[in-house]
Amino acid sequence: MNKLIVLLVLLAAILVAGCADNTEQIIDEPEIVEDEVSDLVEAEDNETMDMDTEEHMGATVEVIIENFEFAPEEIRISVGDTITWTNLDTAPHTATDNNDMFDSGTLAEGESFSMTFEEAGTYDYICTIHPYMKGTVIVEA
């Protein structure tokens, strides 16, 4: 939007300055000004569209595996968001969905696993090595 304002101010200054010298030339070529304004508006619209697309891209949320727990144990996200589990324990762990929707495999200390959730629903998961470790992902549309 700022580019459009600058262009309009610039065009107004050119028109005012040119009126004294070339009134007929300016009047005969209005389509040039219209084309430049149209190009700028189109570029501004594309810029807005790109920003909107970026806003709807999924977020990445962290789940820490530490002290034989998933933290947070329950997490709410939106469709398209990604969760990254990172194991900070010295013991190996997994993040394995109870319905086989995802499985991190064994994560050693410092290793991570990421999963992007494309469908709304509730996903309960455990560490298959330590099944008392439980977590829930709630994916909202």
List the defining traits of the structure above.
141 residues, alpha/beta, Immunoglobulin-like, 4-stranded mixed beta sheet, 8 strands, 38% helix, globular, disordered N terminus
Can you describe this structure?
GO terms for molecular function: copper ion binding; electron transfer activity. InterPro entries: Amicyanin, Amicyanin/Pseudoazurin, BlueCu_1, Cupredoxin, ET_Amicyanin. Its main location: periplasm. Pfam families: Copper-bind. The protein is an alpha/beta fold and 141 residues long. It folds into two domains: 2-55, no CATH class; 60-140, Immunoglobulin-like. It has helices at 2-28, 30-55, and strands spanning 60-66, 69-71, 74-78, 82-87, 96-97, 112-116, 121-126, 134-140. Strands 2-1-4-6 form a four-stranded mixed β-sheet, with no helix packed on it. A four-stranded mixed β-sheet has the order 3-8-7-5, with no helix packed on it. β7 and β8 form a beta hairpin. The chain starts with a helix and ends with a strand.
Question: Could you write a compact summary of the structure shown?
Answer:
This protein is α/β, with parallel strands linked by helices and 141 residues long. The protein has helices spanning 2-28, 30-55, and strands spanning 60-66, 69-71, 74-78, 82-87, 96-97, 112-116, 121-126, 134-140.
